[in-house]
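Researcher: Here's the sequence for the chain we discussed earlier.
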Amino acid sequence: MSLKSATNVSVNTHELLMEIDAEAFNAAIAKAYQKEKNQIQVKGFRKGKAPQKVIEKYYGEDVFFESAINSLVAPEVTAALEETKLDIVDRPEIQVVSATKEDGVVMKAICITRPEVNVPQYKGLKAPKVVDAVTDEVIDEQIEAARKRQARIVTVEDRAAQMDDEVTIDFEGFKDGVAFEGGKGDNFPLTLGSHQFIPGFEEQIVDHKTGDEFEINVTFPEDYQMADLAGQATTFKIKIQEIKTKELPDFDDEFVKDVSEFETVDEYKADLKAKLEESAQKKADSQFENYLFETIIKDLEGEIPQCMFDQKVEREIQEFEQRLSGNKMTLDLYFQYTGMDMDDLKASYMDRAKNEVKLRLALEKIVETENIEVTDEEVDNGLASLAAANNLKVEDVKRLISLDVYKMDLKVGKAADIVKETAEVDNTLAEKKEEEAPQTAEEE
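Model: Thanks. This is the structure I predict for it:
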């Protein structure tokens, strides 16, 4: 076996021409015969007893060629890649040029290689970092949300229904005076303002009391899923059986003691403000980082093979399928519920996959440019943290992951730190982005 040539035929694509000599090919054919003979029937011989030459005469001299070549491809391509030092990113496409017992095999391997990329600038990038102010209004909203979580549901006796109330109703729908299928319900719980029913339905229940019987008129949307009701004017007969509402507790020291480790309203609000400020800072840091990485992705130079994006999408879908399995759901069932198919799912992941692949390539290029290395201590500490987070031993982690990939992950993290630490805050970019945002019809 030998590599005859390695040719760069196009961007990120190499063609390897390889030869397998007649001796090696015939030895592989003999092995293929021994492996497959028991499955071959030849007239005049018991199954598995026909000699190789008889089988070749009966079925053709090349009957074992495919199996023989397949057994030789992997070691031949591996040896060729080691010799050429090509860094491939996809399984090579194998093409058999010729195959004879006398001359052996000539074959090509079309290899897609890792792209060469260039990051024009990664130091001194500018990005906005706007930290949202934690105002009294923001704090009050959080307090209101906490009160709602502790709310009691009480029955309303002394007033009419209002938005946000939960009403229990009997209803029946009529079109042209005739009740239509699917338009009836008894003791149906409905939160007013939830938009569970078609527009106009819930609003007309407001201001009616428990025990009231009345009619409302609504028109179904033009795009309603039931064609015989789409765009049609209908009447519903309604009876309110019960009205319930949420009764919120007072925000006082007793409430604070019940829902937190604090004793007073002032302590609770001070802690809430501190947490909101910390959250706002983290959000600003994250948006700052995302802006920087988006800039690097946008400016990245180099042609990236489509297969790298496709592989990333496949990995994302595999992880998604595992999450579905954890929730006792299959991908087929998910497609039934959503109306999507595999092509739709792949398309939904593609943009994110492209960005992640481009960012990884960019950061790896920075690793190369900056000659970034990691120490054994950094690797050991990282593995120990990874093991602790997953309740494993370090030795178990080493068996489960590629150490080379993990080291590159650490280097990429250092490259990302260089981008962030050398960046400058420029909030005029945020203002410019707002100015360039498309206006709504109302704003216009």
